[in-house]
Write a structure and sequence with these properties.
alpha+beta; 3 helices
């Protein structure tokens, strides 16, 4: 599969996961797909205090997310825990995107392609939430 294209199934399952995290009391303050052209890879980026590795072992945020993912009905088949990356609120990409987009607590679908924000190249991103 061509990694440069974020397929519709990943887009919809990413949104479902964010909704499920909200329902589980783990709402991310930032949730977006981010394309890294150097690695030719899409990652679903999640930020929020509940995903902070500094609050526990680095694996803890992924255990929380995996627990929610395992409860999805129908099961997620296009998004795995390997596609997800948790970052701190102060991550440079999160900060850069927040200067351009602010969604509030709602879930959106905002596409940013080939942008430079504060010197950071955003080759491609699909934003669900940036608070």
């Amino acid at each position: 599969m061509d990694q440069a294209v974020l397929v519709e199934q990943k887009q919809s399952e990413g949104e479902r996961l964010v909704r499920a995290l909200d329902g589980a009391g783990l709402p991310p303050s930032a949730a977006f797909w981010f394309y890294d052209p150097d690695a030719d890879l899409w990652n679903l980026i999640l930020a929020g205090s509940q995903f902070s590795a500094s609050k526990g072992a680095p694996i803890d945020p992924y255990r929380k997310i995996a627990g929610v993912t395992s409860q999805l009905k129908p099961p997620a088949t296009a998004v795995s825990i390997a596609d997800i990356r948790t970052v701190e609120e102060g991550d440079p990409i999160v900060i850069a995107l927040r200067t351009m987009v602010h969604t509030g607590a709602d879930i959106s679908s905002i596409r940013l392609t080939n942008n430079f924000i504060n010197g950071i190249h955003i080759a491609d991103a699909l934003v669900y939430r940036l608070q």
